Amino acid sequence: MADLAVKSRTCFTQTVSAPELPLSAPLNVGFDYTRSVGPVLGRFVNALRERRVEGVRGSDGRVHVPPLEYDPVTAEALSEFVPVASEGEIVSWSWIAEPLDGQPLSRPFAWALVKLDGADTAILHAVDAGSPSNVHTGQRVRVRWAEETVGHIRDIAYFVPADGPDTEPTEAPPPVAKREENAPVSVVITPIHLRYEHSASPEESRYLRGLAEGKLIGQRCPSCEKVYIPPRGACPTDGVPTTDEVELPDTGIVTTFCIVNVPFLGQKIKPPYVAAYILLDGADIAFLHLVLGCDAADVRMGMRVRAAWKPRDEWWTSLENIGHFAPTGEPDAPYESFAHHL
Amino acid sequence: MPDVAVVGFAQAPNVRSTPGTTNGVEMLVPIFAEVLERTGLSKEDIGFWCSGSSDYLAGRAFSFIAAVDAIGAFPPIHESHVEMDAAWALYEAWLKIRMGEVETALVYGFGKSSAGQLRRVLALQMDPYVVAPLWPDSVSVAGIQARLGLEAGLWSEKDLAEVAARSRADATGNPAAQVSGTVEVADLLDAPYFADPLRAHDIAPVTDGAAVLVLASAERAADLVDSPAVITGIEHRVDSPALGVRDLTRSPSTAAAGRALDLDGVELAELHAPFTHQELILRDALGLGEQVRINPSGGVLTGNPMFSAGLARIGEAANHILDGSARKTLAHATSGPVLQQNLVATLEVLS
Ligand SMILES: [Zn+2]
User: Which residues of B34-69 are buried (b: 16+ CB within 10 A; e: fewer)?
Assistant: First the structure.
C-alpha cells in the first residue's frame, strides 16, 4: 500500500481515572483517493454512468467483469470490450450483520461474488437480501442502480434478487468522478475516511502533561546522557528509552531558521514570519517553533529567545501553549556553542 | 554465493491491544535487546536492517521511520522497509547476504492493529478502482472464500473447527500466544456466526505485536549459535489481485512456490493462515501429508500481529532447528487479501 498523504487532526485529553497510562486520542484521517481511469476502466465506468455493464475478453476467451487492463494469463493489454447483462447469479457469499462505514448498505447485507450473464468471472459487490436465509449460491440477482450515476463503481448501488422489487438505497459516501462537460469520465475519486485511536509514548505523555502545567519536561538518555525534548520512545543513538525527567527553562537559542514568505493552505500567520529551531538551555535537541516579536530580518543564528506563553486558561497538553518565542535582548550565543546541534 | 541462516528470533507478546505507539518502539526495544543478547551480537555488528509494517495500520505517513529510533540508528545504518509482512523484508535481507554485501542482517516487523478497525483498514489492500471503494472487509471476503470450499465439499464446518481447536491446544505451549486452551469442537460449532459462514474461532484475533529475526551468512552463523537454521530454499509468488478471476478454494501461488523447493523430509510447517479454511488450502497447495506437524506454535489463529505474523512463522520454524528438535522445517507467510501473495521457505540443519 502507498504511503498516506493525510489531512489529520488529533487532540490529546487526559484520562482522569488512569493518569499513569499514556495519553491517547481519536485520530481521524481523510483524503480523496484520486485516480485517472485509463482506456479500460474508463470504458467500464462510463458505461456504468449509462447503466450498462461492459467486460473485456481475455486471451483465453473468458470475459472479465470488472474488466482487467492486463490479461491474468499472458499479461497482454486487453481491449476487446463485451457488453454483458446487468443480471446474473451468486457464485459465493458471506453475511455481514453489522455493516462498516462506507459499505454499500448500512443495514445487514450479503457480500457476494456475482457472475453476470455473458461474463466468465465474478464481480464483488453487495446484495440487499434482508437476511441470510434469503441468499443462496446460484441465486439470480440484478443490479440496483444508484439514483444518480456519475461514472464510478458505486453507480451499482448494490444487487437485489432478480425477481424482487428495488429497495431503498441506504446512505453511502458519495463517489465522485471528474469530467469536462459532455466528455467521458477520466478521473474517479474515492473519499477515504479512517478512524484511529492514536497513543503517545509514555515519555511523550509525561512531556504533554507537563505542558498542561506550563512545564517543559525533557528526558535524559540513561546511556549517552543527552536530554531530549520532546522526549523519545528510544534514544536514536542508543536504542534505549529515555528515562530521567529533566525540567528545562523556557529560554534558549535559535540554532537555525527560515523566513516564510510563501502563503499556503491552512497558514495561521501572515507572511513574512520566522520558523526556527529552538535549542532550550540544557537540551541536546532543538525543536521547531516560531520566532516573533522582532522584524524577520533581525533573526539570527545564536539569538537568545524566551517562550511567550499563552494565557494560563488556554493551556492544554500541547506545545501550542507557547504562542511563539521572542528575543530576550541578551548577547548572542557563540557559534561554537551550538555548531554540533545543526 | 553464501548460504544464509537464521541465528535468532524473538517476538513481543501477541495481545489484543497495547497502550503503546503505532511506531512499535515500545514493543521493539525489548525484543531487539533479547535477540542481540542471544546471538552475542551488538547493533554495530548488524550489516543491514530491514522492516515490514504499514502506514495504513498506523494511520500516518512514513510511520516506519519513527520505529528506527528503536534501533539506535546513529551512527548511520544501512536500512530498508517493505509495506508488507516482514517475511518479505527477510527476503530482501536474505538477498543482501547472498550477494555478499553484508554478513548479518536484522529483520523486524510490527503492527498495532488495535489502533484502527483492522478488517476495514485491510479493504484498502484491494483494487482501488472497482473493489476498495465498496469497503469490503477482510473477514467478509474470507467468508466468501470459505463458503466456496464448503459448498464444493472440500471442507466442512467441523473440519474448520478442528483446525481451530488443534491450534488453541498447541498454543498452550507458546507463551507469546494471545488465545490458547482446550476446547471441544462441538462447542465451537454451537457458537453463532460472526460473518456467515465464519464463526469467531475461524478468524485470527486482532493482535498487536512485533517480531525480530537475525540472519547471518552460514559461515558467520556457525560462530554465533550451535545449530543455525539454514534457509535452504525461499520462494514467493503472487496470484491475480482480481478476486473473481481466481479459484479461491486453491492457492496456485503457494503451490508454485512450494514446487520450486525441495519439500521432502519436512517435519513440521508453520503456515500463515489467518482463517481456518486457509490452513486447509495451504496444506493442499504444499502437498503436506499427515506426517507433517502443522503449526506447533498454534499459528496465527492464536495471535496474528499484522506485518510480523509471517516473519514469526519463519522464526518459529527456525526455532525447531536452533533448539535441535527438528532437522527440516517449512515456513509460509502471506500478504494481501485471501492468500494473494505467498512466500515459502525451508530451513535445515547446517550440514
Ligand atoms: Zn542515548
Answer: bbbebbebebebbbbbbbbbbbbbbbbeebbebbbb
- Boundaries of domain holding B162: 119-204+232-349
Q: Nearest 5 degrees, angle CA B324-CA B326-CA B327? A: 100
> Residue B30 C-alpha to ligand 1 middle, in angstroms?
16
**Mean pLDDT over all residues of chain A?**
92
**What ipTM was predicted for this assembly?**
0.95
The CATH number of whichever domain residue B33 belongs to comes to 3.40.47.10
Strand A251-260 relative to strand A304-309, pairing:
antiparallel
**Residue B63: closest C-alpha in chain A:** A3
- Give how many domains chain B has, as a whole number: 2
Q: Are residues B183 and B251 in the same domain?
A: yes
Distance from Cα A218 to the centre of ligand 1, integer Å: 13
**Which chain A residue is nearest to residue B68, measuring alpha carbons?**
A236
CA–CA min distance A43, chain B (Å):
13
Residue A11 has pLDDT above 60, yes or no: no
User: Which of A67-81, B66-80, B115-129, B149-163 has the lowest average pLDDT?
Assistant: B66-80
- Return residues 17-36 of A near B (CB < 8 Å): 21-22, 24, 27, 29, 33, 35
Residue B104 and residue B197 share a domain? no
Q: In A161-251, which ranges are continuous DSSP H helix? A: 202-212
Same domain, B64 and B27: yes
- Is residue A298 classed exposed, middle or buried when 0-12, 13-18 and 19+ CB atoms within 10 A define those classes? exposed
Residues 241-270 of B with CB under 8 A from A: 242-245, 248
CA of A217 to the centre of ligand 1 (A): 17
Contacts of B139 (CB under 8 A, 6+ apart): A94, B119, B194, B195, B198, B203
A112 strand-pairing partners: A93, A125
**pLDDT for A173:** 67
The string of pLDDT tens digits covering residues A106-146 is: 999 999 999 999 999 999 999 999 999 999 999 999 999 99
Residues A226, A286: Cα–Cα separation, whole Å: 12
* Mean pLDDT of the residues in chain B: 97
**From the list A1, A72, A239, which residue is nearest B55 (CB)?**
A1
Residue B166 shares a structural domain with residue B263: yes
* Same-domain check for residues B221 and B247: no
Instruction: Report CB contact under 8 Å: B70, A27.
Output: no
pLDDT by residue (tens digit) across B179-219? 999 999 999 999 999 999 999 999 999 999 999 999 999 99
Smallest Cα distance from B54 to chain A, Å: 8
Of A6, A41, A126, the CB nearest to B61: A6
Three cell numbers, residue B191: 457458537
Distance from the CA of A239 to the center of ligand 1, in angstroms? 7
Give whole-number Cα distances, A172 to A2, A155, A158, A310, B253, in Å: 25, 11, 11, 43, 36
| pLDDT at residue A177, rounded to an integer | 80
Percent pLDDT > 70 in chain B is 100
The three cell numbers locating residue A121: 468471472
Minimal Cα distance from A111: which residue of B? B140
Nearest to B319 by CA among B211, B244, B195: B211
